[in-house]
Amino acid sequence: MVEILSTVLLFGTQTILFAGIYISIMTIPLLPYLIALPSTLFYNPLALSDEIGVMLFWKPLIAGRIVALIGVVIFAVASIQWLWYHHKKVGLFTRGLYSKIRHPQFLGIIITSLGLTIMVLTFDPFPLQQLVVLWFLQVLGYTAIAFFEERSLSKKFSGEYEQYRLKVPFIFPVRCPRKVPELLFTLLIFAIICTILVLLPYDMIRSYSWKLP
Known about the structure:
Elements: H1 2-11, H2 31-43, H3 47-57, H4 62-87, H5 104-123, H6 128-157, H7 159-167, H8 182-199, H9 202-209
């Protein structure tokens, strides 16, 4: 239950497009929405629907939208498998996506939040460093939750989980080198993704997206 509530808390802090000066605030769930919603509904009640329309259909955001969609699919498949295994009263989940990575739901959420961040930066690349840092802090939170969950699973399944942990990667489907701590390797991958986020040519993405049919 703690893991579920913490995950919802973190994902609820994802930025939105039209939050103005509050665009980089991701410390309280849905805070930009809560701040902007009263004035939005009073002065321009159609703004919220306009924002949703932009996120779903505006051409320049297609790159981030594709990334986010991939994350949603991974999360949905992992969630369906999780529910099915619980229904069948399976002990340790080691099949399906769980045979590829130990935390497929977190991978789906991380990819989804990455796609949303790319969408925001494509729309307005001005708060680039703030958003990249805040995304990094956000995924650190998911990583911490995953490690907390693994401590519980190790106590519950003991040696069986340790064997599973040695065979299956943590969050990303990439084998960790034996001499490198798994946490450090995961943080290195996050750092590489952050570097890519900083270097992405958002203006070029926006320009070329307009030319798509």
